[in-house]
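lol ok so funny story. i was supposed to be doing the assay writeup but got distracted and ended up predicting the structure for this chain instead. priorities right. anyway since i did it might as well share w the group, maybe its usefull for someone
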Amino acid sequence: MYGGILTSGAAIGLFATMLAPQGTPVITDPPPDKIVIEIATVNGSGCREGTAAIAVSPDNTAFTVTYSDYLARVGGNSDPVDFRKNCQLNLIVHVPHGFTYAVASADYRGFASLQPGAKSQQKASYYFQGSPDTATRTHPFAGPFNDSWQATDETDWGQLVWAPCGVKRNFNINTELRVDPGTSDHTKTSFMTMDSTDGDINTIYRLAWKECKKG
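and the output, tada:
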């Protein structure tokens, strides 16, 4: 999985800092050619080797990350370092010639069990390699809570920022789960996951496409 190449599907460019040429039309249908995503690195306490997988859709409209051991927790017999877990994906995205891409939205899902007085958050940052700007979205949760959760990072269509045409830049997604015991009973465990015991939870990135300006 790590260091591999996926050859069907999708690409990402959420909240990037470089604009595609102006005046180029947004297309409804994705380009027919295959997308190649080369995984440069996968690092973090939430995605240790063998616990995260990347898949891409055959229609070039979505990119999915699946986690099997992404868990942050506090209280009870938790280790002090367990309160925060993260995963950074560094991806090299190759798109068909003449096209650029952006991510219109990103869906995150998991399960949380928070004692009264405890709180947690899911956070994601997005940036192109070499860019000084990082876009960050944070979703807080508060106890008492014992249910599945979902968070969506979404950008209005007119506000999408596109990957630069004709330039290859590694794209980075850094996600984080953090749990704070707050005023809860510290002998009881509060936790937040981006995984599931009865099946993996998928993080989905939905794509938009645009033709690069010719000439």
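Residues 1-25, 196-200 have pLDDT under 50 and may be disordered. The first strand starts at residue 5 and ends at 6.
back to the writeup now i swear
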